[in-house]
Design brief:
This is CubicO group peptidase, beta-lactamase class C family. It is found in: Membrane. It is built from ten helices and 15 strands. The protein is α+β, with helices and mostly antiparallel strands and about 350 residues long. Strands 2-1-15-14-13-12 form a six-stranded antiparallel β-sheet, sandwiched between helices. It has a three-stranded antiparallel β-sheet with strand order 5-9-6. The chain has a two-stranded antiparallel sheet with strand order 3-4. Helix 7 packs across helix 8.
Length: about 350
């Protein structure tokens, strides 16, 4: 009995120490970038098989008030918004209200080349439509309140970069169009649809359509880094990035999002598979993008990943289905990217 007891104690001690070692490895990866106390920072979460095994905050959430970052801090997630837009489209398809093979002209009759551009092309960045973030005139509207139709009108008559299906080229305009279509089909605003059909269903109580005016408890403030120090982020009107980049969330809510996707809470298995399936260009070449996710590999294992960047914030999330590992990192300075750190953490597994 004594030998058994000692063996058990040694096993538990070994498990505890290996856990500590693993935590130290994660810490060391994060501290390569987020290694100062009195500057903007970030929050990181790691979950394995549905359970959080690491959650830590680094740096400051507000430099002027000197408040520390907290694990429940709320960040703008930038282009990770596209995951939610893509799933919203698939939800509407599941309800029989649209089809991803529908042409854009079905929803905007006068859209140039709209008979040949499908929702599928918008979802996987193969439409060829001009990306509005690359237009020089973007500064003219960056702080204006724009309706979804006004945003579409801003870029719709621009010359195309290529014909639909010819190339993969990351494109924010396509997701603005998808936001407009979500509103047209559902009869709700994009903000209302995402809250009612995704945030509320997944229990994401600390996720919102971004705003600089509403009081949001635990908000992390965004910063830029200049040669002489940090400055507050550039102000934009969130009706401009809209369905391509205007959501806010926490690491715990983003984990709830992953759990909801894995458990088919929001989509059935068939629709979920569409989001995570690679597609081919017109020349037969396979692209590493589904609907709202990059589909890559980390250490030989398939990964679903996406990052985001918007004034003052950067974000990155990776899911390894084979190991049921989810890693998410959120930063409140666009000078600090969590992208490689998150991928390296996932690689530890």
């Amino acid at each position: 009995m004594l030998k058994l007891f000692c063996a058990l104690i040694l096993t538990l001690l070994s498990y505890f120490l290996s856990g500590q070692g693993f935590e130290n490895k994660i810490d060391s990866l994060i501290l390569t970038e987020f290694n100062e106390a009195n500057v903007p920072g970030g929050v990181f979460l790691v979950a394995k098989k549905g359970k959080v095994i690491y959650r830590k905050a680094f740096g400051r959430s507000n430099l002027e008030l000197g408040t520390d970052m907290a694990t429940q801090s709320i960040f703008q997630i930038g282009s990770m918004t596209k995951q939610f837009t893509a799933v919203a489209i698939l939800m509407l398809e599941q309800q029989g209200k649209l089809n991803v093979n529908d042409p854009v002209s079905k929803y905007i009759a006068d859209f140039p080349n709209g008979n040949n551009i499908t929702l599928h092309h918008l979802l996987n960045h193969t439409s060829g439509i001009k990306d509005f973030t690359k237009m020089k005139s973007i500064s003219d509207i960056a702080q204006k309140q724009m309706s979804p139709m006004e945003m579409v009108g801003f870029f719709k008559d621009e010359p195309v970069d290529f014909q639909p299906g010819e190339k993969f080229e990351y494109n924010n305009s396509g997701y603005v169009l998808l936001g407009y279509i979500i509103e047209a089909v559902s009869g709700k605003t994009y903000e209302e649809f995402i809250k009612e059909h995704i945030f509320d269903k997944a229990g994401m109580q600390n996720s919102f359509y971004a705003t600089d005016r509403k009081i949001i408890k635990n908000r992390a403030y965004g910063y830029h880094q200049k040669a002489d120090g940090y400055v507050n982020k550039t102000i934009i009107n969130f009706s401009v990035p809209y369905a391509s980049g205007s959501l806010m969330s926490t690491v715990d809510d983003m984990f709830k999002w992953q759990v909801a996707l894995k458990g088919n809470l929001l989509l059935n298995e068939k629709q979920t598979k569409k989001a995570f399936s690679k597609s081919r260009l017109s020349n037969g070449e396979m692209i590493e993008y589904g609907y709202g996710w990059h589909l890559k590999e980390i250490n030989g294992m398939e990964s679903r990943e996406h990052g985001g960047s918007i004034f003052g914030f950067k974000s990155m999330g990776v899911y390894i289905a084979e190991k049921d590992i989810y890693v998410i990192g959120l930063s409140n300075c666009d000078c600090n990217s969590p992208t490689q750190i998150v991928r390296d953490i996932a690689g530890l597994f």
